[in-house]
Amino acid sequence: MTEGNSAPVSVRIVPNTSGNPAGKLADAEVVFGAEFGPLYGLKLIGFAIWERRSGGRNVTFPARQYSVNGERRSFALLRPANGNASAQEVIRDFILDAYSRNEAEAE
User: Fold this and answer.
1) Which 8-state DSSP code applies to residue 38?
2) Best CA proximity match to 75, nearest among 66, 86, 84
3) What is the distance between the alpha carbons of residues 11 and 101, in angstroms, rounded to a whole number?
4) Secondary structure letter of residue 80 according to DSSP
5) How far apart, in whole angstroms, are the C-alpha atoms of residue 68 and residue 61?
6) Residues 6+ apart with CB under 8 A from 31
């Protein structure tokens, strides 16, 4: 498990040691530091790092599943506040960087 404490926001990586489900590399948690006032000491869980079949890596975001007329749907818990979908790329890259650093430390 990797954790950085010097930044206002850090990422904690929890490696998937079981290998199940296939392709899942790790879980990730975003931890809030003192600079975030009321969020200090809290963490946002539910991120996962996956190996793509075509190569590369992807991050899935926290979501809640629900059912409507027998159809399973997913409700995203982390969404852009300004409507700009590219806002999620920043946190996705942040998590992937933390995972890469975690891999380098493990070697």
Assistant:
1) G
2) 66
3) 11
4) -
5) 21
6) 3, 9, 10, 11, 12, 42, 43
Which parts of the chain are beta strand (E)? 9-15, 24-32, 43-51, 57-60, 63-68, 71-76
Phi-psi region of 23 (alpha: psi -120 to 50; beta: other; left: phi over 0): left
Q: What angle do CA 90, 94, 98 make, to 5 degrees?
A: 170
81 phi and psi angles, rounded to 5 deg = -75, -25
pTM of the entire structure? 0.84
C-alpha distances in Å from residue 36, one per residue of 1, 32, 40, 70: 23, 6, 6, 40
Helix (H) or strand (E) holding 95: helix 87-106
Name the more confident of 36 and 10. 10
Cβ atoms within 10 Å, residue 26: 23
Tens digits of residue pLDDT in 38-66: 989 999 999 999 999 999 999 999 999 99
